[in-house]
Fold this protein.
Amino acid sequence: MRNKITVLTMAVLLLLLAGLSGCAAQSSVAGKEATIRNRADQITENILQAMNNADYTRYSESFDEPMKRALPEEKFFEVNKAIKAKIGTYLTKEFVNMETQGIYTIVLYKARFSDEPEGVIVRSVFSGPAENIYVSGFWLDSPNLRK
């Protein structure tokens, strides 16, 4: 009888330990996602504010090297002017969704711009470790931008 109680106690303890380790793993994933989300929010806000101010240095400070090569300073001013002519200046953004695809984390926002009543979808793509993510892609989409 005593052996059965000992075995049952050990089994219960093992189940509890297994459950707790699963919680720790989930907590670690949730912590990493929260870190990425927080950094993504900050970086995206910085990019959108830099667009308002036509500040290429601030706009590109979190870009990875391929992004910097794809959008050099001269091109930024040209593209930024065209965007502002169609949708105006950035006002606010609201988080919509975050998903991971391979090495990339894609974060979507719905933003308000002064001349776009339908709103603007902002898509920021990040790569790198949670503490030090870089922008690997950045897109804006709206009815006025498609005209």
About this structure: The longest strand covers residues 90-101.
